[in-house]
Amino acid sequence: MSTVNISKHHPDAYRQLLALDKLAEEAVQRAGLDPLLAELVKIRISQLNGCAFCLRMHTRDAISHGETADRLAVVAAWWESQYFTDQERAALALAEEVTRLPVPAPRIWDDGTLTDEQVSAVTWLTVVMNSWNRVAISSHYPVAP
């Protein structure tokens, strides 16, 4: 099978995903979540999906929001570190659950740390980020130094 950049072949679908991405980002803001938390969620989802393009982009975005090298180094094993707040840990656990869709789900994030609005915002952010990962991976977006 040849490599097909699906965003170029169906630009209207790509634009709709951009619009959904904007709505998810607005939901994150309205829910009172830190933009840095959103970048951590995007990074973790991209790690789970193996999307180098999105990992590079969102790691750079996290750094521009003030993220540290130490926290970025351990986000893949966030549950074993003490670097993350309770809210960040809940959001990362929720994002992993939505990405992996385990059955039955352990729901370790569901401890009351996130409000219903924040749960909804992180869930939408995760749905959108999973979509972006699949666009970038299936289209073989280039990732080079």
From TrEMBL:
SUPFAM superfamilies associated with the record: AhpD-like
Domain Carboxymuconolactone decarboxylase-like intervals: 19-97
Domain of life: Bacteria
Gene3D superfamilies per the UniProt record, alphabetical: AhpD-like
Protein's name in the database: Carboxymuconolactone decarboxylase family protein
